[in-house]
Design goal:
By secondary structure, the protein is an alpha/beta fold. The protein has 17 helices and 16 strands. The site of 3-methyl-2-oxobutanoic acid has 9 residues, from β5 and β6.
């Protein structure tokens, strides 16, 4: 490997999916994988195939479609996991198996019930078996940062001798400090036999808000692969955010002297896609991709920027894919202009998808004078986030509220193709809609979160509503956009309900009573 390059290993679809409530469907994972490939991500960790038939199917689908990134499947050090991972990866152009086992005394004793010697034997046996299945094997020493350093070095040595080409050092519980982590990686690189022949990797969790700092410190210690996720989603407080790691390397290139293959101009699009699919919205002040990341409020700053952008901007918004929100289309724009703008934004739609999107665009243009790139992206994400037939479809909606009449929603809903109508009250208009929808659908889903966001400025802006619902341990996100936020709210709720229905159906077929906790 070129020592001047940092390999970017994305685990949005595996560790990212372990964020509570972020579970994704196969088609959604494929959409994200396509975006990651387009961005130039080196390795896509597509899932943990033995965990469920859905995970297996998603890894297999990604493996057979994506050609320009390695596709990786996670596996415990168990023969059944390994065989399943290899089968899921059989269609991949560049398959990788990622094996892990814990090396800290706490995990070995309490979780695995294995002696340190038994763990070393398991690593040796499993890495050899994996290397017989695929040419590219990665080994992770789970809870590495709380492991005895000398034992960790032995474990890493065994994995290298058995055929692992990448050695990942996870800060599984987000415990390390940057100086310690840098030193740990440097120690392993310097002392473990064969270390110079493999790539060291860092996988940092954000429990102390140090995931990105620790990833950069690992690079200083000699790591040449960083494991990260879009928007930093992941187990508990999340993983290192890819956009932050990559931009730190880019903006501070003089300090690191290292490059990645990632096209940073795709970050905003990737971030929005992951937010739409998971329902996990980033906070406005999130570095790189937050709504305020390039917004300058203070008069002194604005004055400085007008004189010279470099006074208060260390990178250009365009470098991360933030367009100026230029006015692009309107009511009189034709299909040709619409297609051409979408192509410029990187969308390749079939004729049928284009026709459907164009109908939605025309409807929006009747309600909203100026259509910005962000509106188009929202319009498209709304049309592509579903999968399979919907049980519930909104036919008509009327809502009253204000200070004179009690909030009431009257809804006509198609349930399995049959129209049902009902009117109901609530403590506010959205509450009235959601209570009425619950009754009409017979759903007992609980609303976990509800967020409204204006896509572009102005009171005629598209309102984008994201909801997350939970029922029997299953969680699903829904997303709706409309110039009327009450319509957007109803759509978002129904999309989440439709997703829950599909999950229930799949579980019914697989004989699962309620969703297993990972
Ligand atoms: O955090 C962790 O230790 C992991 C491993 C499976 C790499 O996610
Ligand atoms: Zn992790």
């Amino acid at each position: 490997m070129d020592q001047g390059m940092i390999r970017i290993f994305d685990t949005t679809l595996r560790d990212g999916e372990q964020s509570p409530g972020a579970s994704m469907q196969k088609e959604e994972k494929l959409q994200i994988a396509r975006q990651l490939e387009k961005m130039g991500v080196d390795v896509i960790e597509a899932g943990f195939p033995v965990a469920s038939p859905d995970d297996f199917a998603a890894v297999a689908a990604i493996a057979s479609e994506v050609r320009n990134s390695s596709i990786c499947a996670l596996s415990r050090c168990r023969p059944e996991d390994l065989e399943t991972a290899a089968r899921a990866l059989s269609g991949a152009a560049a398959p990788r198996i990622h094996l892990f086992i814990a090396t800290s005394a706490l995990h070995m004793e309490k979780k695995l019930g294995l002696s340190p010697e038994a763990v070393l034997e398991t690593i040796d046996r499993s890495v050899r078996r994996a290397a017989g299945l695929v040419g590219d094997v990665e080994f992770s020493a789970e809870d590495a940062t709380r492991s005895d350093r000398d034992f960790l070095a032995r474990a890493v040595g065994v994995a290298i001798a058995a055929g692992a080409r990448t050695i990942n050092i996870p800060d599984t519980v987000g415990y390390a400090l940057p100086s310690e982590f840098r030193e740990l990686v440097a120690f392993l690189v310097a002392t473990v036999p064969g270390a110079r022949e493999v790539v060291f990797s860092a996988h940092c969790h954000n429990d102390l808000g140090l995931a990105v700092a620790n990833s950069l410190a690992a690079i200083e210690g000699g790591a040449r692969q960083i494991e990260c996720t879009i928007n930093g989603i992941g187990e508990r407080a999340g993983n290192a955010a890819m956009e932050e790691v990559v931009m730190a390397l880019k903006v501070r290139r003089a300090a690191f002297g290292l490059d990645t293959r990632v096209r940073s101009e795709e970050f905003i699009r990737a971030s929005r896609l992951v937010q739409t699919i998971t329902g996990m919205l980033v906070q406005p002040n999130k570095a790189i991709v937050g709504a305020n990341a390039f917004a300058h409020e203070s008069g002194i700053h604005q004055d400085g920027l007008l004189k010279d952008k470099r006074t208060y901007e260390i990178m250009l918004p365009e470098q991360v894919g933030l367009s100026e929100g230029a006015l692009v289309l309107g009511k009189h724009s034709g299909r040709h202009a619409f297609r051409s703008r979408l192509e410029t934004l990187g969308y390749r739609l079939s004729e049928e998808e284009l026709s459907q999107a164009f109908v939605r665009f025309k409807k929006l243009a009747d309600q909203k004078k100026d259509i910005y790139d962000e509106d188009l992206e929202t319009l498209l994400s709304e049309g592509t986030s579903g999968q399979g037939a919907d049980r519930f479809r909104l036919e008509r909606l009327a809502v009253s509220g204000g200070t004179l009449v009690p909030p009431t929603a009257t809804i006509v809903l198609a349930v399995d193709g049959e129209e049902r109508q009902m009117a109901g009250l609530g403590s506010g208009p959205v509450d009235a809609i959601y209570r009425t929808l619950s009754k009409l659908t017979g759903s007992s889903a609980r609303l976990l979160s509800f967020t409204v966001k204006g896509i572009t400025g102005g009171s005629d802006a598209l309102g984008e509503v994201t909801v997350r619902l939970e029922e029997d341990g299953r969680v699903a996100a829904g997303h709706g956009a409309d110039t009327d936020i009450l319509v957007a709210s109803a759509r978002a709720y129904l999309e989440a309900l439709n997703r829950l229905e599909r999950k229930k159906e799949r579980d019914r077929r697989a004989g699962v009573v309620s969703q297993p906790v990972l």
